[in-house]
Design goal:
The chain is mostly helical. Among the domains are: 549-644, Serine Threonine Protein Phosphatase 5, Tetratricopeptide repeat; 662-763, Alpha Horseshoe (Serine Threonine Protein Phosphatase 5, Tetratricopeptide repeat), CATH 1.25.40.10. Helix 26 packs antiparallel against helix 27 (441-453), helix 31 (509-521) runs antiparallel to helix 32 (525-538) and helix 35 (578-590) packs antiparallel against helix 36. The longest helix has 22 residues, at 2-23. It contains 45 helices and no strands.
Length: 763
Amino acid sequence: MRLVFYRFVVLALTACFLVSCSRDPNVRKQRYLESGMRYFDKGKYNEAAIQFSNSLQVDPAFAQAHYELAQTYLKLQQGERASQELNLAIDKFDKETDKDRARLDLANLFIAYRSYQRAKEQLDAAESRQLGNPSFLMARANYYAGIKNMPAALEEMQKAISLDPNRSDLYLNLAVLQMTAEQFDAAENNFKKAVAIDPKAINAQLSLGEFYQFRGRLAEADQQYRHAMEIDPKNADPRSALIRLLVIEGKNKEAEDLARKTKQELSDDPAAYSMLGDYYFTLAKDLDRATTEYESVFRDHPRDAQVRKNYIQLLILKNRLDEADKLNKEVLNTNHLDADALIFEAQIKLRQGHPNDAVTTLQDVLALDQDNAVAHYHLGMAYSQLGDRARAENEWREALRVRPDMLEADTALAGAALQKGDWSGLDRLASTIIQAQPNSPDGYTLQAVAAINLKQRDKADASIQKAIEVAPRNPVGYIQLGTLRSLENRYADAEKAYLTVLELDPSSSEGLSGLMRVYLAQKDADKAIAAANTQIAKSPNNSGFYDLLGTALFDNKKDYRGAEAALRKATDLDKNNTDAILKLGQVLNAEGSGDQALALFQQAVKDHPRDVPLYLLLGEMLEAKHDWSGAKVAYQQLLEVQPENPIASNNLAYVMLQEGGNVDVALAMAQTARRGMPDSPNAADTLGWAYYKKGAYASAIGLLQEAVKGRPDDASFHYHLGLAYQQAGKIPSAKEQLQKVLKIDPNFPAADDVRRTLSELRG
């Protein structure tokens, strides 16, 4: 009995000890850390992130957990989160050597983002202790390369290699720098040396393949990637590299098959089971299939946080907003401060037509992390939707301050430059995009657009040829080639370029539009219409093609019935094709079906409450019917969508003047419109008419003279000027202007008043 009792006591004490340990925060945080590291070693980075986060919930000051979580975020390609965790690790570590380890990682991250000043700060902080560390010298070499000091960069790499001549990654980095310096023979030798030192290093094998690809040696690149697949058949990276190469070669079916095979063979690897969806989205540009594929992946891997977020993003892009919102709310219910989920919430609000709500959400994100580049980018998009270009561009620049490699922000700024006609600015941004993606045609095509508008035809030609060279199966280069050849009146060459576009992408509206413009420039409307019908036969569900056909029938053949049928088909195929809706309304109006056109636009603004042109046309139609109250509402609604729209301000001011509204308010709005459109005859007329209503006839006359000079065939402008002259006592000038009104338009709406006034002036 005593022995049994003794065992019972021992077991009880052991149980108490285990319970005590399980409650000990130091034990619990360590267990989570070790569990996370096991997941990390197996490549299960989402699970690792959860465990490291659990460790930090137990002890937010646990430096090693911050550091390991940063490494995990780096693997998940979540650089901003990695940056946050590395900064926390630096703050929490006690030893300078540990701090330096995090500083070096942070410097490398900043170099990858092209944030060179921030990288330098980290390198400088570690320099005194790290000069004998080859990894430190390699990071500093990359910093020098980033600031275009290639001699210093190459010198640092030679120092690093002298410290450890048996490290494959050092030769690999030297080769990359030599390639940047266009020392291609030396680079190739060092790529091969890196492979020879460590034949199983997949990054060295892939880098050699990328070198071959960059040099146009595609067969050797293909062979190299396949060799890497043989070395490590369980690694998804060589397969991904080969897929990208196959797309460049125009072997899309083979690329798709490899992505599908990879998903099947490496079914436990997140990079592998997401590969087919990523292929559809990134390389094939097929949003529908990408969404369908990610729906399947999410069903199979519902606990994969990155898959969930990728799927939410695709649902947003597909405007399946209710589904996206439901999944996103589940994320926010788990963590209401999840930055990605908050940014998704803002994107959903933007697409729902609530930009002010999106601004508030994104500002909340930035209050938590002022260096969240993605939040700055989307805040710029929100301000853009509100019509605040200055603040939009400022946010995109902020995004680039944090992440100089963020091409979306560069592209947004390029779009703004394009919209403003800032061709020099567009050229600078195109150069930045080219530097970041030298093997993508996008930067070269933007450079070509800038050069065309700057009348630099030779530069445009060179940029276009480069775009075609780097992506011969991508239609964007041929589109710009067609544009340039059209401007040069080389119509046969332009036609050939656009036919190539349609061969590469039979559903390209830009290709068909360009081809039709070539035929119309040669006064051959029948050939343009035939081209549209040919493409419709190949792509019968393309809304844009019916839009182009309807436009040609309306503008060039005055075939209203045919145009109406084509445009109705366009809107049936795509309810969001507002261009087709606008043109359909114009056709109906031209046919004499003004009430149908008005009803169409009234419904359209309900269906598309953010579409500015719809409000403008609705307001103008109501103006033509002298429905001043209805027009006023349309313009006010437009200004709620885009508060600084000068056309809406101008038209609303004019309507208020016509309906007898507050003249002072109308005058202020007309002045706003004039600032926004300083060269517009219409804005000059409205402001002049407002001064007339205020009794400031001298100011009115100057502006109305400007309006008449700008548009001498507008009867209403002459009418306003005539009345202003009359009130100013300039009777001969008043008679002259009023007589012109009747000469230009005998059926002018106020023709009776004009005749009566002329009779009074003669008397």
